[in-house]
């Protein structure tokens, strides 16, 4: 905790030194799943969307943008913490058609995407492989605007954030009786590590040298996971799912250390969201915000609703989401996202130092 505090103070000092008009990185690139999707699924033929009420009800102009929350995502607060005046635009949104908006980054994430492209295929999400292809296209657009030398400098110094993996388990592995009978969670994690390693290598080859990747959250504490695997009415986390997440996160850390040592000049930082989110669930009064509801979500019954099941007609949706850790069955509320972003700030110090 002391080291994290020092890192935070140094980071704040660096930011103050640059002045409020100068972000700590030239661009912010986001990839992953629904936890960081800012609207890329809006025009896709998929059930995994969030561009309708009550999503976004606490966002700017009370507008549903495709973010899977009642308001801002953790990456929105992260962008603010890094000094950006706005979050990276969703690459497949109309905002990205104004190519000048791409100079400070872009968001390629897609709800229900995973490390495994097969997970994305189940829900017609944008696979991680395709997100990399879209990033290549993005690079070409930036290069055409500023020239190759300046563009390469932007890509090299940009902060690239990846947040994915939950869908691989909750929306694929655990609900596939054939897969989870034949393949153990440990072996499945090993398979995902191979996809992760390929992703990092590909991004490195494209010039990315500063990459942050989030751990899995405590999967067994997600309201939908408690309902699906722990039983309706349960108010405790499903510990076997949490054990799988801890095991995966250990592999993620070890693999990341190996990749960072293997690839010269790469700054690869694993950002822990498991423990901060678990702390909010189990110690709801210790985060500056009093979370009165940590096992049930705000939307609908608070047990399973997400995406199209969390809609304007959902009965039981809370009137004030600030006391809830989770907005829907899978995703944190804006209040929880703020806490997560503040935790990530100190952890990501190496990405800007």
Automatic annotation (TrEMBL):
Keyword rRNA-binding annotated: no
Signal among keywords: yes
PROSITE patterns, per database record: LIPASE_GDSL_SER
UniProt entry keywords in alphabetical sequence: Signal
InterPro entries on file: GDSL, GDSL_lipolytic_enzyme, Lipase_GDSL_AS, SGNH_hydro_sf, SGNH_plant_lipase-like
A Pfam entry, by short name: Lipase_GDSL
Record's signal peptide: 1-21
Matches recorded under Gene3D superfamilies: SGNH hydrolase
UniProt record similarity statement: Belongs to the 'GDSL' lipolytic enzyme family.
Official protein name in the record: GDSL esterase/lipase
Source organism (scientific name): Eruca vesicaria subsp. sativa
Lineage: Eukaryota, Viridiplantae, Streptophyta, Embryophyta, Tracheophyta
